[in-house]
């Protein structure tokens, strides 16, 4: 990453990737997120963003990320614009730069952007010094709020990652989620990190010097405390590498495969899940699955980053 997400005093001014976010910053965000989660699990917060405007610019489909950013901003009292890209001037040839500058002219204080091109959020962050850019996913590069909500999920349900073995399973090659998770888990000092994928879906250049790579699911998840499984991201595959039914037979997380992990292992997935492709239905619906909890924590984490970036000036 070339543009910095920190100002010259070391304060976070954008959230573009997990690069450079140290333990102190990560803990600050996770601790803040905890303050929004009540004893009954309800997520609420004070109206610290009253008078601010947050714009969601999603150039790729999204259910969880876009809605939780919207809800997070609204719970903190901000106004929210959800630009419908398919009905926007992007369809008339407007460049992303001009769409972005137009949102700034509407006095948006923060722009949340998801885009298929890597580096889009970083590029937009260089165009204006006074507003906040949050990366909600850029190609296969980064998805920092997903990594943060995953850390919060692990912390709340399994404790400190320094005592845990975490296995990331699936289409690692095309996954911005995996890239951000690897950075986040390593920064937090994960005890052991395993990357598990068929050869065709494992990056040839290693994403981490410390992670162990496996092309066998059973070996990869044996004894693991946390299993994070990923969707086959067909939209980013140049040619169809993998047949879903074949993939399920060898890399799908089934109850039988899960029995090789630690007996209290948790199963996570950023969503959207494809049942009977990367995860069996009975695993997705089991008590070991935290997939829907991740969504709730995503709301709290996005409230935390919005309030730190916009509310604490
Ligand atoms: C992920 C994404 O879009 O990067 N989903 C999400 O944000 N919850 C993963 C995916 O699409 O498979």
What would you note in describing this structure?
With 313 residues, the chain is α/β, with parallel strands linked by helices. Helix content is 35%, strand content 14%. It has 11 helices and 9 strands. The chain has a 5-stranded parallel β-sheet with strand order 7-6-5-8-9. A 4-stranded parallel β-sheet has the order 2-1-3-4, with helices on both faces. Strand 1 (53-58), helix 2 (64-75) and strand 2 form a beta-alpha-beta unit. Helix 1 packs across helix 5 and helix 2 (64-75) packs across helix 11. The protein is globular, with a radius of gyration of 19 Å. The two termini are 24 Å apart. 48% of the residues are buried. The mean pLDDT is 96. Bound molecules: N-carbamoyl-L-aspartate. N-carbamoyl-L-aspartate (NCD) is lined by residues 64-65, 137, 143, 146, 176-177, 231, 233, 270-271. N-carbamoyl-L-aspartate binds next to helix 2 and helix 6.
């Amino acid at each position: 990453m070339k543009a910095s997400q920190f100002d010259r005093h070391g304060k976070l001014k954008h959230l573009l990737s997990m690069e450079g976010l140290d333990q102190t910053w990560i803990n600050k965000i996770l601790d803040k997120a905890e303050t929004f989660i009540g004893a009954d699990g309800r997520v609420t917060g004070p109206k610290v963003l009253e008078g601010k405007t947050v714009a969601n610019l999603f150039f790729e489909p999204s259910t969880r990320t876009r809605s939780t950013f919207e809800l997070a901003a609204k719970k903190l009292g901000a106004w929210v614009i959800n630009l419908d890209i398919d009905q926007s001037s992007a369809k008339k040839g407007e460049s992303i730069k001009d769409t972005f500058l137009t949102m700034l002219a509407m006095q948006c204080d923060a722009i949340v952007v998801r885009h298929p091109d890597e580096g889009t959020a970083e590029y937009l962050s260089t165009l204006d010094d006074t507003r906040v850019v949050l990366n909600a996913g850029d190609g296969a590069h980064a998805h920092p709020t997903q990594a943060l909500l995953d850390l919060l999920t692990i912390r709340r349900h399994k404790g400190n990652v320094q005592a845990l073995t975490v296995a990331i399973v699936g289409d690692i090659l095309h996954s911005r989620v995996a890239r951000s998770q690897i950075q986040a888990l390593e920064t937090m000092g994960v005890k052991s990190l395993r990357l598990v994928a068929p050869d065709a879906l494992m990056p040839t250049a290693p994403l981490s010097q410390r992670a162990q790579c496996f092309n066998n699911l059973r070996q990869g998840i044996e004894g693991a405390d946390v299993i994070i499984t990923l969707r086959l991201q067909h939209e980013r595959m140049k040619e169809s590498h993998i047949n879903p039914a074949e993939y399920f037979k060898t890399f799908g997380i089934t109850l039988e495969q899960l029995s090789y992990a630690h007996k209290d292992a948790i199963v996570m997935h950023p969503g959207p899940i494809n049942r009977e492709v990367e995860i069996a239905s009975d695993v997705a619906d089991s008590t070991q699955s935290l997939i829907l909890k991740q969504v709730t924590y995503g709301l709290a984490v996005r409230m935390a980053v919005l309030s730190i970036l916009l509310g604490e000036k």
